[in-house]
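User: For my dataset I need records formatted as: sequence, then structure tokens, nothing else. Please produce one.
Assistant:
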Amino acid sequence: MHRAIALAATLLLLLAAGSRFAATAQDGGTAAIPAVGEAVPFIGGDGTEVARLTVTEVVDPFEDYDASFGAPERGQHFVMVRLEVENISSRPFPIDPSAVRLQDADGFLYSYTFITRPSEATEAEPDLAFQEIPAGDTVSGPIFFPVLNDVELVRVLFTPDSDRLVFLADLTLPTAATPVPTDEDEATPAAAA
């Protein structure tokens, strides 16, 4: 019980900081939280990298669900996070979508939920489910969250154990696949006009 309270207090302190930088046990120092599309190394108990986790896409709001089987509660909407997990170790790596969380700008956390999507969508890409990923394999899939309307989402977090917090993505940054416009890029259309 004391361990859970200590973890909760530690999480609140880290999350309340609101900084793009956080002290992590992953690299032994201060590390930048990656943008969507950037891989995050997951360090095992022996100090070696065992997996790479990448938030490849965030869809906010996510609207391709079957409302006849459940819609978001009043004042909420769904958000989809697509997560890719590559096991680079020689042993199975467990992944649990319930260990992934979203954090808003006020520090509130959102846990995953199950939604019903059209059968074609689910067949094309099944939801990410709890599983042991075989050595050398990669899995990917969507995870869904009910989120309050009109909040700014700022981070995707991974809490695989009660004593572990891994920052997966800073949602306030441009995605790794999105080029940041330069002054030249912005000036080019005006010059052509």
